[in-house]
Amino acid sequence: MQLGNSTTSLILDTGSSDLWVMSDQCTTGTCDSSTSVPYITQPNRRSGGEVHMKFGDSKTRTHAAGPVVFDTVSVAGISMADQPFAAINETDSSAVLNGGAGIFGLGFPSQSLVEAAVINNKFDKPETTDVFVANTASAGPLIARMAMSGELEQPMFAITLQRSTVDIGGNEGALTVGRLPTGVDNSSLTWVPVRLYGPAHGGQDPPSFAADEVYPLRWEVPLEAVYLDDEKLPDTNLTGDVNAKGLSALIDSGNSLLRGPEDVVDHALRMISTQFAADPSADPTFPCSTPHSLSFQIGGQMFPIDPRDFVSRGDATNCTARLIPTDAPHRAHLHSWSLGAPFFRSNLVAFYFGNLTHPSVDPPRIGFLNTVPSNAGQLLRDAVQNATANGGRFPSTLEAAPPVMATIHLPATPMTTTPPPAPTVHTQLRLGLATGSTPSPRQASAASSSFASSVWFSVVLSFTVGLSVVVF
């Protein structure tokens, strides 16, 4: 991605909404250890606002802080002038290590601290959300601005991640903006609605010009059940401080693991690790050569994790699962599960914004396409055998993003395309909401500069970027 005159690699993060990059003013130990290209700050590009962003759950908290600046931002052949983003001068996040320089947040405007800082500074902390919603096209997150500008063929993007250890390969690591990847048809995906949050449940207040609208907070979908080795896992008894109706999952590319309710995760680890079953204080190890299948039922379909993506990297004899506990649901965070990088290595995931000002007109939704081969278990056994014959450790690779590819179509006349199918009314009715206690940035007129986003960083993964843009 190019930000002003700086070109650098960023981590794709569907669990947060803001674009931020390490600046040349960052002198923390984490920044000093970074080999990434920093953004060169210029005082005349500052917005006057600042952000202090918090990431992760209560066990994995990191932060990033700095001024909000405006500059031209380009990705895959398309540029947005005066794009607001955070030029970070203080962080302890590993997002600036391993070849990366920050985060490319791909979430909804309602969770954007950068947009909130811009609006609050420009309009002196407005008391309603009218100006927030009305100004998303000029001050919102990058992909949301592209979608609202009408430049994209569809208001959407899709992600697949490549396996970087155990058995390197699988999906091509790619971000596709404005359409589905070449060769992928709408009908091959399972489309489900994104959860909407009313004000009583931690969502933003609707603007006066759309008083009946309810808005999404993050890429969160209904989750019908979770299975381990074809056995349905029990429902969680941990509901936190809310009475959430229905199980849901955050689809979070910035999370390097799979995270779930502590009681359910403990149950799953006891199923696969005799050592952990006998002693809960022991490491939950199991033989790497024994394939395990963790599957998520979404929209009536099963989406398994490839056994090669379920195991940890390193020792090819005794493995641990890429599955850990996370916080119980709480207000504005009603999800019980967070499906991170292992899920994206096993599935193509398409994110459709729909209508960002009037969601009821064109609701947001997510499409899923499983890519796990039928012989994945045998492929894991083969990978273990190869690793055992070559020193006993799995191979591992790390590549920063290569140069991008862009395809820009300029039709002579306006054109229309078919959007992803809307979820059925039956499916939409499953989206339950609940109560709790922390406002989103747009609920508070000052848009508090501290917000805990459900994201846990992974190392930079190799990906290519393809962009199909239609200019109307």
From TrEMBL:
Belongs to the peptidase A1 family. It comes from Steccherinum ochraceum. GO terms for molecular function: aspartic-type endopeptidase activity. This is Peptidase A1 domain-containing protein. Pfam families: Asp (PF00026). Residues 1-369 form the Peptidase A1 domain. Coiled coil: none annotated. GO terms for biological process: proteolysis.
